[in-house]
Automatic annotation (TrEMBL):
Organism: Symmachiella dynata
Topology relative to the membrane: Multi-pass membrane protein
Molecular function terms from GO: DNA-binding transcription factor activity; transition metal ion binding
CDD domains in alphabetical order: TM_ABC_iron-siderophores_like
Stored PANTHER family: ABC-TRANSPORTER METAL-BINDING PROTEIN (PTHR30477), METAL TRANSPORT SYSTEM MEMBRANE PROTEIN CT_069-RELATED (PTHR30477:SF3)
Name by which UniProt lists this protein: Manganese transport system membrane protein MntB
Amino acid sequence: MNSALSLAASLGGVLAASDFGTQMRRFWSLEDPSVRTAILGTLLLGMTCGLLGSFVVLRRLSLLGDSLGHAVLPGICAGFLVTMTKDIRWIFAGAALSAMLAAGVIALIQRRTQLKQDAVMGLVLSGFYGLGVVMLTRLQNTSSGNQSGLNRFLFGQASAISTEELKIMAVLAGIVLVVVLLAYKELAATSFDEEFAAACGIPARAIHYLLMMLVAIAIVISIQAVGIVLLSAMLITPAATAYLLTDRLKVMILLSVMFGAVAGVAGANISFLESHLPTGPFIVAVLTLFFVAAFFFSPQQGMLTRMHRRHRRQRQTLADQLVRWLHAVTSSQTQSIEQLSQEMHTSDSHIRKAVNLLRSDGLVKTDAGGLQLTTTGREYAEMLDRNAKLWELFLAQEGTIADIPFDPDTDDIEQVLGVDLKRQLEGQLNGVH
């Protein structure tokens, strides 16, 4: 371990004197052993956290990663105390036991008290982390602890990952992958509806504890590269980003794994260029950029996408109102933009945008006198009028639309009421007339 730290320190000194291009080539050439272990290590932690994070996000257990992540600090210190050296086997073992103990304490308190889940996790987080800080402070005041490098576990340093650590990380990541593959159906079912899954015979509570154990393993994998403080971001951010991009679990998992892996390597690269800075914050920064991009530009849930969709729907609604207005006044008389603006109490600019939309669809035509419906436009207006009458008839009979996914801007009433109900209403409407 000391040799790995010395190699990372000497490598940082060399890189500080080289230019950006040289550093980039040196990183991606994979010639340095520390670069290879850093890339493989961040890939493993990114993929593992992305895999488990999907289930954590769906279960609304975002605080779980933070709780177990901070809970490993006492175990790290205890592992160091065994040999008074930074023996990664003892440190990983101590971290794993500490995380699993924290998971057990969370489960015990939840079962024995009426406290909310987030309150329990907050208690465990603060208690274990406080104990860990006390132990770390005491250790750093000793001769051996002062040179231990345990503070690297707070924010992570991928360049300090040794070959032995990488092997342990690979074994743990393999265990997580195998367990998830074997228990995928149960994990998926309990993530969406735990009560229904339990009613179907799935041991929901056991699956919940299994997920907590897997998260504890993922945390052990991540502590060297990301650090204790930012561990929860590795679990939550990739999955939250993927959640904004899809509504299918398998696709969400694949995207989450991809985001975690890419951010891990990118963070290691940036940390390599700025060798005096820890890796964890850079990985989290890259993940945050991914989330911000998805937040604004997601095809379904992106803020800008929703704004554009709302604007387009408003313009379509105005266009439909304009068609019905022209049809109600007369199907042959022309109307000017100014007249329509006054009659419909809408600005000229909005009317012009609606007219452009209708003209592109071939529903209106313009001449010297103003606007006039085309034959297609009159047919479209009649369809809108008929749909409005069908809605009125439906509401008069049902009295409520609370259980109907009603969209007042839809053109096709069949999408809302279904073919059979539409035919029934049409028959009643024809009978009235």
